Amino acid sequence: xxxxxxxxxxxxxxxxxxxxxxxxxxxxxxxxxxxxxxxxxxxxxxxxxxxxxxxxxxxxxxxxxxxxxxxxxxxxxxxxxxxxxxxxxxxxxxxxxxxxxxxxxxxxxxxxxxxxxxxxxxxxxxxxxxxxxxxxxxxxxxxxxxxxxxxxxxxxxxxxxxxxxxxxxxxxxxxxxxxxxxxxxxxxxxxxxxxxxxxxxxxxxxxxxxxxxxxxxxxxxxxxxxxxxxxxxxxxxxxxxxxxxxxxxxxxxxxxxxxxxxxxxxxxxxxxxxxxxxxxxxxxxxxxxxxxxxxxxxxxxxxxxxxxxxxxxxxxxxxxxxxxxxxxxxxxxxxxxxx
Length: 339
Ligand SMILES: [Zn+2]
Ligand SMILES: [Zn+2]
Fold this sequence. Notes:
Bound molecules: zinc ion
Number of domains: 2
Largest sheet: none
Distance between the termini: 55 Å
Structural class: mainly alpha
């Protein structure tokens, strides 16, 4: 624990250190007084001179607050303050072409605790050896940037309830990608079970309802099928669950000519994190747009529609199904009534 009595009038460096501890240890227990104090200070003057400070503090602690199930009203108070700030500052005076809130959030958050004190100290900002990496303080404190970060924080706390911010996978979705990637790399993260993971995604695919959810799960299960082809399991259940999920994917009837042509379908990335991120984006209503923006990472750079193409999805599922069936046969012999 950072031993700091971080009240709203504490030096910014102390507030930043306390918020950073909550940000990086968001799964641990913390005193929510510090978060509530920032929310109260912001609500008292949502468009005020220090709105940038409280907004960034609430942004840094948003993941932690989003995980709180306590009915102490913290999340509601934080959301009210952030929404008031968005209303007050969204159309504020600005002469900038771009703002930090439009950039990748994770990168900005990783260094924000160190940069925060410089936002109020022009001399320190000018002497910052990393100043080329960071937008100048006046751009960070610009009303439109503060309103933008208020919306980013709102989106963490109440996904899908605001607009005008970059698409992003939620923290939970990003963690899911990391857990899955740890399986694919052969070093499951603590608490991650390989057999549970294989079964879970096989069953999720079998129960998929929407086309985008199904397409995303087929991409994820395809990545898992690469792993299933090389791993050794104690019993066949997880492979059977993958098989059932893949076999449930509808096969287009008739001549399967979608008109996309030979180069019109995505080529899946081979880096586990990239292919899993692509699948997670497809599944996520809030991050789907990200796939179109970053499609280039797959080497295809194709629109979302091509990722959702039933011929493409069915083709992936068929290849993965074959891979899982072969793996099952090699490890456990042929099934008597093969599906
Ligand atoms: Zn601006
Ligand atoms: Zn197609």
